[in-house]
Amino acid sequence: MTGLVQSMANNLKHYIKMAGMTNAEVAEAKGIAPESVSRHVNGRSAMSIKDAIEYAAILECRPEQLLFERKPMTVIGCLTEGTEVSFYLEEDRKRVAVHASYPPGARLLERDWLKPASKPYHDMYMVVDSKPMKTKQVPQTCYGKPAICSYQCTGPECEDWHFGYFVVYPMPENKFTLQGVYGRELHNMAELKWACPVYEIITRPDLLGWVEE
Hints:
About 20% of the residues lie in helices and about 35% in strands. It is of the alpha+beta class. Strands 1, 2, 3, 4, 5, 6, 7, 8, 9 and 10 form a 10-stranded mixed sheet that branches.
């Protein structure tokens, strides 16, 4: 049984669909019967490492992407109009099956654009490192880069903590300058409770096969 992976759910069906192919076409390219592809797709037959490598060459993906079922990611909040950040209650959080593997602690923010001119940018996702929320840190990986922040302005009128999407610049005395990624919002000598680096922005989750559970 060397080189075999135990029969389990896998991503073969998803990547065949993403490649715009049929089971029969994949079977022909691999030189096996369509029934063998169907058994692999349904998990009735375990894929060997060799099978995964051959399928990956046909579907133009990595073998490990085929072997293991996609794990969903949690949508923890929303970025509206590129500036306003809000977080969902635990019971309101959604789960989305994604196309890739991300580091531990990665979470999703929905990106909502409500103005008519912004509609083409609606329904995107932002992948962020949520660990600093728990550790209450501002990692150096945020410096000079866009980040989701919990911040407090200086001055008597700024007593509350807010959430926002800023490029973070370190200042003396553990303060920060926050430049809005969109618009002209700017805060000098602000305090940060935490800042979460942004891994990437997914502009077309529909074309990548991201599915809300």
